[in-house]
């Protein structure tokens, strides 16, 4: 069974957001792209499962939908609560400066989640 085209597109768009994390972006932009990468990865898995994902930036809501479908995400180095403010609110408000360690945790979270979700999608596509 081929990969769901929407899931494939979301994986590609998530990779574009992840690529942005390789550059010295301001904290708000860095957090935004990290949040977007995670959001698109979860939506890719939801789509690959043949389900409809909500048009939301709420990471916990997406995680809950996956959990209800039996998908338990791996342990991550940062909580979705750490990423969530960058999804919408901080784009219009001031943000604290992210430390190098926080940036590293955001990157690791995206990378771990990507590896796990790509593996799940591969299983679902066979």
Automatic annotation (TrEMBL):
InterPro entries: HEPN_dom. It holds the Pfam family HEPN. It comes from the Bacteria. Residues 32-118 form the HEPN domain. Gene3D superfamilies: Nucleotidyltransferases domain 2. This is HEPN domain-containing protein.
